[in-house]
Amino acid sequence: MAKKEGYKVGYKIVVSGAADISGCCLGIKGLAKKLGEEIVEQGCILLTGATTGAPYYTAKGATEKGGVSIGFSPAATEKEHINKYRLPTDYFDFIVYTGFDYVGRNLILTKSADGVVIVCGRTGTLNEFTIAFESGVPVGVLRGSGGTADLIEEILSRGYRPKTEIVFDSDPKELDRKVIALIKKQKRSKR
Predict the structure, then answer these.
(1) Domain residue limits, the chain
(2) How far from 68 is each of 1, 2, 72, 127, 187, CA to CA, in Å?
(3) 173 Cα distance to chain centroid
(4) Is CATH 3.40.50.450 the right assignment for the domain spanning 22-189?
(5) pLDDT per position in the chain (191 positions), as tens?
C-alpha cells in the first residue's frame, strides 16, 4: 500500500463497534466519524472490521480527513465480502480478506493493532475487547456511546483484571489522545 501524499504513518488503532447501530446512542454516527478524524489528526492509521455501522462511520471520517483506513473482512474474497456478508468497500484504502469468518477476523484485526477503541458495540465488539484485554493491547472506551461500551466498566468491576491498561472518556478527541499515550508508554517499556 502506498502512503497518501504527505501522510506520516503512525500507530495502528482499531475502532471496534456495532455494525447495527440501533442500540447505540443517538449521536453515534457523528461520534464515530469524529473518532476517525481524530485518529488521523494524531497521525495514526485506522483499522476496522470492514463493516457497517459505527466502524463504517469511523472509516468515513478517517478517509475524508485524508488518512489511511484499512478494513479486515471476515470474507475470503471481495465477492464474498459484498454478496455473502453484505459489507461495504468504500472508505477503505485496503481490505484484508481474512477468510476466517467473524471470530477469526476479530482475532487477526485486534492482534494487528497497537491500540483498540471501543465505541457502542454488541457481542462481536465484546469479543474484540476481550482479545485486546487478554493480549495486553491498550484499550480506550467511548463512554456514553451505548451497547457494549457502556457495560465494560461494570464487567471489569466484577472480575479479575490483568495488567491491561484501559482508559475511558466521552470525548472522541480526548479518548484518542489517552489511547495514544498508553501505546507510547507501552512501547517505551518494551525497549
Answers:
(1) 22-189
(2) 10, 10, 13, 25, 22
(3) 14
(4) yes
(5) 344 555 455 899 999 999 999 999 999 999 999 999 999 999 999 999 999 999 999 999 999 999 999 999 999 999 999 999 999 999 999 999 999 999 999 999 999 999 999 999 999 999 999 999 999 999 999 999 999 999 999 998 887 666 788 999 999 999 999 999 999 998 887 76
